[in-house]
Specification:
The chain has 18 helices and 14 strands. By secondary structure, the chain is α+β, with helices and mostly antiparallel strands. The protein has one domain. The strands form six sheets. It has a three-stranded antiparallel beta sheet. The longest helix is centred in the first third of the chain and has 21 residues. The protein starts with 32 loop residues before the first helix and ends with a helix. The N terminus is likely disordered.
């Protein structure tokens, strides 16, 4: 366990894998199913993104809907200072090891830029032609003056499935720690000033594994310097921090939930989703002024629909799976279809058995800070000070949101349904999609290979033996037969 008892005032102070795209496996008759699958996902995700939330489209009366305004806010507003600029981005490849550095050196400018997106797990925004646009800042960044990149919520909540961008999907590729370290190295060489993440990553880890982040502790640090009324007090000392990584949940399920976060302790309001904007340069007055914009962002989040599985589905098998699911799983995760019903409930950690670090990492003092202050309208919105476990989430679009469990420790739905088969260590092999096991395409290991020494390389491996990364628990599928598990797996594609 890592702890950080020292003050971190400078961190948010007044300064405002490498993976290669691969095709999916072919079917027994050699039909290129993977290529077709990725193409269908591309059409589905980009058309939905542009048709539903494009900030350039007007609705009746010449007005943008609140949801469209919310997406526009994320893509254009600067709630945080820039992390870097185009000059720095263009030089990031010079920090890489081999063979990536040589490959980048020999590439064209356009190809090198694409390699840089891929190396750090940055998701390209869709262009006007609905194709990934590598010429612009990534989906998770709003463009600024002089080529600046300003991080937004979509850095973690804009991902890809089968190599195709999708806003609202968790970014299971993002290499935030590596990106920030390399940005800092390039800035030193170019004699450019540091930003808040450059300072912050010197004092607390941003992520221990690619695809996950230490986001919960970011919120604790930011809250430390805020009084209940959101005014700033930089004299406060950051409490001991329990660093651990989390997997971002999909945005499209927020509409079905009554509260936020893995343990469901926080109210679902615009104020709560503003937590990561609480750097001290953003005053209490600024935060209050931004609340209507974040209400629009919440409207956009709640407008999202889960993507439909674009591959083939064995309908008779899925129908059998539905019966098994409704008998064994629906009591926690709800039912689906025309008459589906989801009732949010928290499952006691003793029954659930999953990694408890996230649950225990937030102190009663932090939860009380939210309960007593502006974030919850001074207690008018319910804040649960002592949650008993984790929320059983709704499962819409679960086929697209791998990896699974709150810490992202389980790479596929097949592994989730086979607790005794979950890998000790796994690594993504590509940006591809494993249709057979429904989830990430991975290679499994008994341990991180001995010859993997560099921290940036180790972060490409998900090691479930590390603190906060256990893949244990949620053993409820053990009561199912192998045939029932396969049927449920097929049914989950339909949600």
């Amino acid at each position: 366990m890592f702890t950080t008892p020292t003050p971190l005032r400078r961190l948010f102070g007044p300064v405002r894998p490498r993976w290669q795209r691969r095709g999916l496996p072919t079917s027994n008759d050699r039909e290129p199913i993977g290529e077709r699958f990725g193409l269908l996902v591309c059409r589905l995700s980009l058309v939905a993104l542009l048709a539903i939330v494009s900030f350039g489209r007007e609705v009746s009366g010449g007005e943008l809907s609140p949801a469209e305004k919310g997406f526009r806010n994320l893509r254009t507003q600067h709630y945080l200072p820039p992390d870097f600029d185009e000059e720095v981005f263009a030089e990031l490849w010079t920090t890489w090891g081999e063979p990536e550095r040589t490959e980048a050196a020999n590439a064209t400018d356009a190809a090198r830029r694409k390699l840089t997106f891929e190396y750090y797990g940055l998701i390209p925004a869709p262009g006007a032609d609905r194709q990934p646009d590598y010429a612009q800042p990534a989906l998770g960044y709003a463009p600024g003056e002089k080529g600046a990149w300003h991080m937004t919520c979509l850095a973690c909540h804009g991902g890809q499935v089968a190599g195709q961008p999708m806003a609202g999907l968790p970014n299971s590729n993002i290499s935030l720690q590596t990106l920030t370290e390399d940005v800092r190295a390039v800035k030193l060489r170019l004699k450019k000033p540091f930003g808040h993440l450059d300072y912050g990553s010197l004092q607390l880890p941003l992520s221990a594994t690619n695809g996950t982040t230490n986001s919960v502790m970011f919120g604790v640090v930011l809250a430390t310097f805020r009084r209940p009324d959101m005014s700033v007090d930089l004299k406060r000392t950051v409490p001991p921090l329990v660093h651990h990584d989390m997997d971002a949940p999909p945005f499209w399920n927020v509409k079905y939930k009554t509260s936020l976060y893995a343990d469901g302790f926080a109210p679902k309001t615009a104020r709560v989703i503003m937590q990561f904007m609480m750097i001290p340069r953003n005053s209490a007055e600024t935060m209050q002024d931004w609340e209507p914009q974040f209400a629009e962002i919440l409207a956009w989040i709640e407008s999202l629909e889960a993507p439909k599985y674009p591959g083939p589905i064995d309908e008779p098998l899925a129908a059998n799976g539905r019966m098994v699911f409704e008998e064994h799983c629906a009591k926690c995760h709800g039912t689906y279809g025309a008459n589906g019903r989801y009732l949010q409930q928290t499952i006691d950690i003793r029954e659930l058995g999953t990694d408890a670090v996230r649950l225990e990492a937030l102190t009663p003092d932090f939860r009380r800070w939210m309960k007593e202050g502006w974030m919850s309208h001074y207690g008018e919105d319910q804040v649960i000070e002592e949650p008993a476990g984790y929320v059983a989430p709704p499962l819409h679009g679960i086929w697209a949101s791998a990896p699974y469990l709150h810490n992202g420790s389980v790479p596929t739905l097949w592994h989730l349904l086979h607790p005794d088969k979950r890998p000790m260590v796994w690594k993504r092999t590509a940006a591809g999609y494993d249709q057979a096991r429904v989830g990430l395409e991975v290679t499994e290991y008994p341990a991180v290979p001995d010859d993997v020494a560099e921290p940036r390389d180790r972060r490409r491996y998900f090691d479930t033996q590390l603190f906060g990364k256990s893949a244990a628990g949620h053993t409820f599928p053990d009561v199912l037969s192998p045939a029932e598990k396969q049927a449920v797996l097929e049914y989950l594609k339909t949600l």
